[in-house]
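Researcher: Here's the sequence for the chain we discussed earlier.
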Amino acid sequence: MGDKNEELKTTLANAMRLARLYAENLKLISTEKTTVLLSSGVLAVVLLILAACALFFCSIAVVYLLASVLPIAWCFLIVGGFYILLGVVAVLLRTTLFVNPIARFLSRLFLTPPTDFKNKEIEKP
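Model: Thanks. This is the structure I predict for it:
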């Protein structure tokens, strides 16, 4: 009877240790995935700001280039119309251009198991 009691205590202690290890693993994996998600978001914001600045300067350059042929007011209207057309195309293709890539990225990030720890046994101390 004493052996079974000791065996039960050992099994319970091992189960508690395994649960703590799983909780620690969950913390580490969630921290890693949150870091990847936040760093991707920050990178996207920085690139968006830089692209907006570059687009602004390129737009002014195109306006001045067209100004040699057309009146300046028409040049600004042409460039503004181009941006309106670009906005309409972005709204029409929003699922293909924005929703699907973001959903694919998030599903790959959160739903795929980590590749470093696949099929490895838990090491004994």
